[in-house]
Amino acid sequence: MKLALEKSPIPESHALVAKALKQPLFDPNWHFHQEYQLFLVLKGRGTQFIGDSIRPYKEGEITFTGPNLPHLWKSDFDSQLPSHKAYSEGIVVYFNGNFLGEHLLQKEEGLKLNQLFQKSLRGLLINGDTSQEIKTLMQNLLQLEGLERVLELLKILNLLSETKEMEVLASPGYINSLKQGDTERMNKVYDYVMKHFQRKITLEELAELTNMTPTSFSRYFKVHANKTFSEFVSEIRIGHACKLLLDHNMNASQACYESGFQTLSNFNKQFKANTRRTPSAYKKEFGPR
């Protein structure tokens, strides 16, 4: 398992790294690094974890994350397919905050860029027409070298600094308190919950998994995830229900029980609390036209 603090993906001889990803799954490990990251999903669906934000992701989505913000794209795939056919595809761009030098962000010309970088510390989801423009520029970036590649990244950052078509992901109070050992332990928890969320999961199970008492685990999880364990499981279930409503055309009752909820009334309550919509309204707004 990869550790939380990985070696920088950017060689000392370069200002940035841009690469295409094509693999059975996106990296399954909860981790963070000191670089800024732009990530475009070209193929694949699953659950996205950024800070204390949990949401389903799909093709075409672009996120921008700042330094030391824990993140994970946990891919869904059809277990009946051969692994070489269960591809996830995307484009990732890494760069350091000082790639423009030490002083530009303190000048008037760098004011909006500095504000963008501050917002990215909570993670940003790019929406609307801006998302389409950024997608084209990120695809271009793969074909460029030298100064042209830097200039293309500046175009992307300029667009992001000007647009209002973005959503902040992690909550205002989120602080990364994780260390290397913590991310390994949290990966165990995430993996376990993703495999078993469709049934009741007890604190005792997770306490045994992490070699803690139930009380200690509950306290530990709240500190590092910025939410209770029951809230975390509920968000995983709601994210799965969203996919069932849209991708499998299920009704609310079917999605409720397939996602691990025991009563329809609790499902409807939790669904509205997480998405600010009823299941039927969510399906109408985001479902096929």
Please provide a written account of the structure.
There is one protein chain. The chain has helices at residues 111-120, 128-141, 146-162, 180-196, 203-209, 214-225, 229-247, 252-258, 264-275, 279-286, and strands at 16-23, 36-43, 45-50, 53-57, 62-65, 71-76, 88-95, 124-126, 166-168. The longest helix is centred in the last third of the chain and has 19 residues, at 229-247. Strand 3 (45-50) and strand 4 (53-57) form a beta hairpin. Helix 7 (229-247) packs across helix 8. The protein is an alpha+beta fold and 289 residues long. It folds into 2 domains: 16-168, Jelly Rolls (Sandwich), CATH 2.60.120.280; 197-286, Arc Repressor Mutant, subunit A, CATH 1.10.10. It is globular and about 55 Å long. The strands form 2 sheets. It has a 6-stranded antiparallel sheet with strand order 1-7-2-5-8-9.
Task: Summarize, please.
With 289 residues, the chain is of the alpha+beta class. It contains ten helices and nine strands. The protein folds into two domains: 16-168, Jelly Rolls; 197-286, Orthogonal Bundle (Arc Repressor Mutant, subunit A).
Strand-helix topology:
Layout: E1 16-23, E2 36-43, E3 45-50, E4 53-57, E5 62-65, E6 71-76, E7 88-95, H1 111-120, E8 124-126, H2 128-141, H3 146-162, E9 166-168, H4 180-196, H5 203-209, H6 214-225, H7 229-247, H8 252-258, H9 264-275, H10 279-286
Antiparallel strand pairs: 1-7, 2-5, 2-7, 3-4, 3-6, 5-8, 8-9
